[in-house]
Design brief:
Belongs to the splicing factor SR family. The chain is of the alpha+beta class and 235 residues long. It contains ten helices and six strands; from the N terminus they run ααβααββαβββααααα.
């Protein structure tokens, strides 16, 4: 019996524990769910709830209805890349090596803007959660917790990856928002540079070919105070 219960734990056959929370670290029913959400006491993965605010989804009219923001695809990608780099670099430099970081592009309240950071060591994730719960980002408090998700292949929507998801942004599986190839190469090669020469490169160019300009320092200088209002330090 014990072996059977262990084999179905976190699956659809498990009538006690929530399979969605086990796979995705979030459930649309929240505290009202009829099944148990087993929050881990240790994990490699840290969840920052609703941290990323997509400009295309955040604009609202006076009656509270959503408006379509007039933001080009290029500006949208730059905004997202800047956010992703800020969070990734700060967390890796402060807490420890990151194996992967993912941001949800879903629209459901339980997934929208969720940031999942999988550290190499469990103790780094625990330290990040304890520290980040005392921080603010973009004028809002950060809500961090350890997440049971360590295999994002199981958490992601396969139909979305093939461009076939019919539930749009309200799917209950992760729709991960991709970063640019240049940024991915830079972020995941940082540890190699540190092990060889140490420190962060002083300049780099990730600009799209048609724009033909470096964003390495221009981006840093373009952060307006309102983007940092209510934040303690950088993060």
């Amino acid at each position: 019996m014990a072996e059977y219960l262990a084999s179905i734990f976190g699956t659809e056959k498990d009538k006690v524990n929530c399979s969605f929370y086990f796979k995705i670290g979030a459930c649309r029913h929240g505290d009202r769910c009829s099944r148990i959400h087993n929050k881990p006491t240790f994990s490699q993965t840290c969840l920052l709830q609703n941290l990323y605010v997509n400009p295309q989804n955040s604009a609202k009219s006076a009656d509270g209805s959503h408006l379509v923001a007039n933001v080009s695809d290029e500006e949208m990608q730059e905004h997202y890349d800047n956010f992703f780099e800020d969070v990734f670099v700060e967390c890796e430099d402060k807490y420890g090596e990151i194996e992967e970081m993912n941001v949800c592009d879903n629209l459901g309240d339980h997934l929208v803007g969720n940031v999942y950071i999988k550290f190499r060591r469990e103790e780094d994730a625990e330290r990040a959660v304890n520290d980040l719960n005392n921080r603010w980002f973009g004028g809002r408090p950060v809500y961090a917790e350890l997440s049971p998700v360590t295999d994002f292949r199981e958490a992601c929507c396969r139909q979305y990856e093939m461009g076939e998801c019919t539930r749009s942004g309200f799917c209950n599986f992760m729709h991960l928002k991709p970063i640019s190839r240049e940024l991915r190469r830079y972020l995941y090669s940082r540890r190699k540079g540190k092990s060889i020469g140490g420190g962060r490169p002083h300049s780099r160019s990730r600009s799209p070919p048609k724009r033909g300009r470096s964003r390495s320092r221009e981006r840093k200088g373009s952060r307006s105070p309102k983007h940092r209002s209510g934040r303690s330090g950088r993060y």
